[in-house]
Design brief:
Chain lengths: 379, 367
């Protein structure tokens, strides 16, 4: 992993932070610049490297809806559990999906009750299990944005090629542009710009974001996942303000092309179709925001192969995740934050994953200033 | 959409919410689950809650309430008897650097060593699944014998049970051990003071990553060997060089991040770690990066974390590094008074973050 070191150089970080401090001086009309990092991977980098403590008070990062695990609504988790608890089913899932609560517990709890739930690192591993256990029905719980959808597509193409019939996919893949639009459309929006998702953009490219600047007048900089990537993207956003520009830019040029990855896009086209609408935890129903399997792959579609409860479970009333996701309120302003809703017993999407805005604030909120002080004193 | 609306911020409410969370965090975690899940065995908050609600509740006594790696029991001679037990269920049974057999000896010997004891005797109990090959069992027993000889302990009693196919995963081993703590030796969290130095006896995460890779379901290959080793000898080296050593712990399940949290909570101090000082082998760091796991939470089976007075840190480090098991020993942080009960990591990048207790098993992130 030697190649990543140059993106974690503290000297370069200090230079970038100095530049950010200069550019953001005075904030925006007296308030801090509020930039949303759309992707959960960015949130993880920000916490892991302590980036928030490095930033001046004039720049604030708002954690967006790009944690694919957090946005799956309770009803879909319930469906997943119902599938997992069917006799003869091996239910496979990415690890961090297993703790997400439905209306009656999580997949981890279903596993504890005896369901055959197995953690996999790739849908291809699930397909391997299907080949190895031909008398079992192996279902893969597909979640994630355009980042993980191509690997599901490859797996389905291979399943068809090899005629593996005891394999199916419960698709919960979502797309990035519609929720971004939903956030931009909200009347209580409180954001000045966006850090665009790096991994998603390697697939879809940078062009689909053009509307963010053109129609909504907000700059967006697609960025990578190393800490210096994040700082550089913030510099690029602030430079746009300083120079009176509002554009979609690409900081992650070493990976992201404007046109994306045409091979992956073609595969998605072949394997998936857009759902008319899909429910997002905290954001509600968003039109054309998720992927179901196409007619060609109907035989591998778990939603058609099995009867699913398909019951819609409303987000808890008191939960204000939607507002937190849009940056309209801070986590601590939510009515249930820290009382009914905690990392051990999460109610809303933002508390579910450790990189959700509320979970992060719950763990780190009080200590931001103390931590910053300590770090300053010791350097 | 250029007009942004900023809702009014209720005065004082943020402080109030944060105070409430802080009060909640100070409480021992509470058991709310109806069934046991794997999270209860992962060494984090869920484990603590289960132990509190079920075992402490049932067995409550002074020795147990210390919740140390082993119990310390006073003897008429003035010495103390250290007594520890541990069960081993690792899969696969063999991994680069060791086996469930060698691990079953090292783990219990190390629990004793962390109490400051010189380990002497072990018991070994086997739960064996019907159908398990005798040759494999004999090989594991040979591993145990070799590990015991190297650690200077004798297996003096044992038990064998066989269960139906499916009722166990090949073989489970439970060992218990006893050893003597010389009079006057006391290692405890309450001796830790601000200004003390935190040491680790070698690289982090080797065991956890070696086992993860040996399971073979990752399709990842890297040259990683488990660090499983008996530590009693190295502990004696440390205590000779740094007689003021305050506290020792072997960061097994839950890793260095978890034991530092236990220390911070028990001693009411801050543990401030430096990311750039954490010794992590490249293949281990690379595998962790790929899987989205933090090496701070990955298990070790041949390392200890020690807190020593600042003035003895240099001597401790020199002595540890002269020993084959301590060649990569390093100072990884210090004890501070504030913020109480918190483990803070100063990142190599120049920021800082809090290293919290894990809620359950560290689950790999998907993106």
């Amino acid at each position: 992993m030697r190649f990543v070191d140059e993106y974690r150089d503290p000297a370069a970080a200090r230079v970038a932070v100095r530049r950010i401090t200069e550019l953001a001086d005075g904030g925006r009309g007296g308030l801090p610049y509020a930039f949303m990092e759309v992707c959960g991977g960015h949130t993880h980098t920000i916490y892991r490297h302590g980036i928030e403590q490095l930033l001046p008070e004039t720049v604030e990062l708002v954690h967006g809806p790009g944690c694919p695990v957090c946005v799956i609504p309770m009803g879909r988790v319930d469906d997943a559990i119902a599938l997992a608890e069917r006799p003869g089913v091996v239910f496979t899932s990415f690890g961090d999906m297993m703790r997400v609560p439905g209306s009656a517990g999580s997949l981890l709890e279903a596993k504890a009750r005896g369901a055959d739930v197995r953690m996999v690192y790739s849908p291809l591993d699930a397909l391997k299990i299907a080949e190895a256990t031909p008398d079992m029905q192996v279902v893969f719980f597909a979640v994630g944005f355009e980042t993980t959808a191509p690997s599901t597509a490859v797996t389905l193409l291979r399943a068809r090629e090899r005629g593996i019939r005891n394999f199916s996919v419960f698709s919960n893949h979502v797309t990035i542009v519609p929720p971004l639009k939903a956030i931009l459309e909200s009347p209580d929006l409180r954001l000045d710009g966006f850090l665009g998702p790096g991994h998603v953009s390697t697939v879809i490219g940078n062009r689909p974001y053009d509307f963010v600047a053109r129609r909504y007048g907000k700059p967006l900089v697609t960025t990578g996942f190393e800490p210096l990537d994040i700082l550089q993207a913030i510099v690029m956003l602030l430079e746009q303000f300083a120079e009176g520009r509002c554009e979609v830019e690409n900081q992650y040029t070493r990976v992201v092309r404007d046109e994306g990855n045409p091979i992956a896009l073609a595969m998605l086209q072949q394997v998936f179709r857009l759902r008319p609408h899909f429910e997002w935890r905290g954001l509600g129903f968003i039109a054309q925001s998720a992927l179901a399997l196409s007619e060609d792959f109907a035989d591998w579609d778990a939603e058609r192969r099995f009867d699913l409860p398909g019951v819609r479970v409303a987000d808890p009333k008191a939960c204000q995740c939607g507002e937190v996701l849009k940056g309209a309120i801070k986590p601590w302003e939510c009515k249930v934050f820290g009382t009914a809703c905690t990392p051990e017993t999460p109610i809303g999407t933002c508390m579910v994953s450790s990189e959700g805005a509320c979970a992060a604030y719950y763990t780190f909120g009080r200590l931001h200033r103390t931590a910053a002080g300590l770090a300053a004193a010791s350097s | 959409m250029s007009a942004t609306v900023h809702p009014p911020v209720p005065e004082g409410r943020q402080e109030l919410v944060l105070e409430r969370i802080e009060a909640f965090r100070r409480r021992r975690p509470r058991l709310t689950d109806e069934v046991v899940t794997l999270a209860h065995g992962a060494g984090g908050k869920a484990s603590a809650a289960l132990i509190d609600a079920v075992f402490l509740e049932a067995f409550r006594n002074e020795a147990l309430e210390q919740l140390g790696d082993g119990a310390l029991l006073p003897l008429p001679s003035g010495d103390q008897l250290a007594f520890a037990t541990d069960s081993y269920v690792v899969r696969p049974h063999r991994f680069p650097g060791g086996s469930i057999g060698s691990l079953a000896v090292h783990g219990t010997v190390n629990d004793l060593a962390m109490c400051g004891a010189r380990p002497s005797w072990l018991s070994a109990a086997f739960v064996i699944e019907e159908g398990f090959p005798v040759a494999e069992l004999a090989a594991l027993a040979a591993d145990m014998a070799a590990a015991a000889a190297a650690a200077g302990v004798t297996v003096v009693t044992g038990d064998t049970k066989v269960v139906d196919t499916g009722a166990a995963d090949g073989v489970f081993i439970t060992t218990a051990g006893v050893g003597l703590v010389p009079a006057g030796r006391r290692l405890a969290a309450d001796r830790v003071r601000p200004g003390d130095v935190v040491l680790v006896s070698g690289t982090l995460g080797d065991h956890g990553v070696a086992v993860l890779l040996a399971r073979g379901d990752l399709d990842l290959e890297a040259d990683v060997t488990s660090d499983t080793a008996p530590l009693a000898g190295l502990v004696e080296v440390l205590l000779a060089a740094a007689p003021g050593t305050r506290w020792l712990r072997d960061p097994t399940r839950g890793g260095v991040g978890t034991v530092c949290n236990e220390l911070a909570a028990q001693a009411g101090v801050a543990v401030v770690l430096q990311e750039s000082a954490l010794p992590v082998r490249r293949p281990v760091g690379g595998a962790c990066d790929l899987l989205g796991i933090d090496p701070l939470y990955v298990a070790n089976e041949g390392k200890f974390v020690a807190v020593v007075p600042a003035e003895e840190a240099g001597a401790a480090l020199t002595a540890l590094r002269a020993h084959p098991l301590g060649a990569d020993a390093a100072v990884i942080g210090r004890i501070a008074g504030e913020p109480e009960r918190i483990v803070l990591l100063e990142t190599s990048f120049g920021g800082s973050r809090i290293v919290d207790m894990l809620v359950g098993d560290p689950l790999p992130r998907i993106c």
